[in-house]
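Example record

One chain of 190 residues, shown exactly as stored in the release files.
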Amino acid sequence: MLQHQDRANHRTPRPVAVAPVGGVASGVAVVNNAERARFWSRVHKEESVTSPHVDTPCWTWTASRNEDGYGEFHSGGKTVKTHRVSYELKHGPPGASVLHACDNRACVNPDHLRSGTQADNMLDMRSRGRAHRPRGELNGRAKLSVQAVRELWERWERGESQRAIARTLGVSRAAVQFVLNGTTWSDIHS
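Predicted structure tokens for this chain:
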């Protein structure tokens, strides 16, 4: 009876599924020649070199891109970053990160890609001056201009509500609140 209980309680460990970072699977979804052809059909090979860091032109992904500008390839129920697919098709499985020598997130030229760690990626980012976030109107996600922020502060100091200011400026009340509490535009006050 003891042996039976031991067998019943003994289970072969099952592999643990790891959630993909950013909702993107890390394995390559290109499993056959049709998928490979579909992948490469979405690539435009540039005519000229556009980066000072490489000697050959970029190959630009022309299909779906994520909000950060990286190409995405959908296959077999997975979404995979295209630079990882390209790297693996030429060089084999990558490490934790695939780095772009050309600094072009949409590039899938395998000669512009190298495998590395996240620490390598951060070092590369800092060494190339990409570690800062543009502030104010230079930030592509800015909803307000310097002039609008000054107007916001004037209206607030006159006693207008956040909701009324937001309506006037065409932004959310949260955007107004972020300015007033210094989360955004902290360098401008009236």
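Notes: The radius of gyration is 24 Å.
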